[in-house]
Amino acid sequence: MIEWFFTTYSGENVNVINPSSDQIKIKDIAHSLSLICRYNGHCNQFYSVAEHSVHVSRIAKSSLWGLLHDAPEAYFSDIPRPIKSQFPQIDKYEQRILDAVKKKFHIWGDLPKNVKEVDDRILVNEIEVLMPNQDPSDLKMRRYDSLDLSGKRWTPKQAEKRFLERYYEITKKKGLPTVEINI
Q1: Which of 137, 149, 152, 182 to pair with 13, CA 20 to 30 A apart?
Q2: Rounded Cα gap, residues 94 and 92, in angstroms
Q3: pLDDT tens, 12-41?
């Protein structure tokens, strides 16, 4: 059988077909997501998946889930929903990565409904600010009135740092196993 792996930022070899939680590193997730632009880059300014994830984690009741809900994108990139829906195999492999992430970071069960709702509602805010040529009312979802995304976007370095800081803040507060991170 062919091994399907690639080497991450930290030098870890990750098998994306059959990943192990030992291969998953928070620094790799933070670094990669900070360099991946939401909406496959089709927005009016760079907006990283890491910045999006930090916003979700600050609003969702399940904060660690909120931060890590898009962690598989660190290994598969941010594939827009309409495209992903046409390729069910992607979901299968993303779920394997997510299972390894869940095991590594001690999060259990399926994605909580509150995280999914926050993710969907933030999408409306993001589209209003970042994609002025798309009508967010087509999404038939409510936006977050209290989330103002009109300010300056984070650079990749800022997004990576804030993602790691948020991870440390959540795990320390919840008394979860954590890794020391250099910020």
Answers
A1: 182
A2: 6
A3: 999 988 999 999 999 999 999 999 999 889
CA angle 99, 103, 104 (to 5 degrees): 115
Cβ(27)–Cβ(10) below 8 Å:
yes
User: Is residue 90 within 8 Å of 79, Cβ to Cβ?
Assistant: yes
Domain ranges of the chain: 5-174
Q: What is the DSSP string of 94-133?
A: HHHHHHHHHHHHT--SSPPHHHHHHHHHHHHHHHHHH-TT
**Domain 5-174: what homologous superfamily?**
Hypothetical protein af1432 (1.10.3210.10)
The pLDDT tens digits for 100-140 are: 999 999 998 999 999 999 998 898 888 888 988 877 666 66
List the structure tokens of 133: 């040529």
Task: Tell me the residue type at 25.
Answer: K
Q: Are 103 and 21 in contact (CB under 8 A)?
A: yes
